[in-house]
What we know:
Elements: H1 7-27, H2 34-45, H3 53-60, H4 64-76, E1 80-84, E2 92-96, H5 98-102, H6 104-119, H7 124-148
Antiparallel strand pairs: 1-2
Amino acid sequence: MGQPESYLAVKIIQLGNAVTWLRNKTMQSFGLTSSQSEVIRYILRNADNPVTAGDIMEHLHLSQSTVAGILHRLEKKGFITRCAHAGDSRINVITPTELGIAVRKALIDNAVEMERKMLQGMSPEEQAHFRRLLQIALDNINTLRQKENGDHHE
């Protein structure tokens, strides 16, 4: 008897949960969750440009309420500041604080170690193939998401 059609989705969800668990565990010493660390990494990678909540929503495919909650907690913990955009006071620009900048190396090291653990036992060719297939699957789902949302972000 074969696996149910949703078996692949279940495995992907299980992998995502396992990655989130390990990231939460490794970032715990910094007081960050997996989601918070991904947002601060995005902010740090784009620190040369004004970063807004809308940018984070678009690039990380998160809802407005999720981003608002993460930003609130990151600000409360002292990793970011928010101030009004020079051209539009209704928009907040998000910048890393000294504490946010100080965790950059730990975030990078964590990402490298996570990838190493996830890919161990795969040949370089299998790793490249795995990355390519993951990107295709992600692109497929994101295309569906964009169509469902009418190609606009809140």
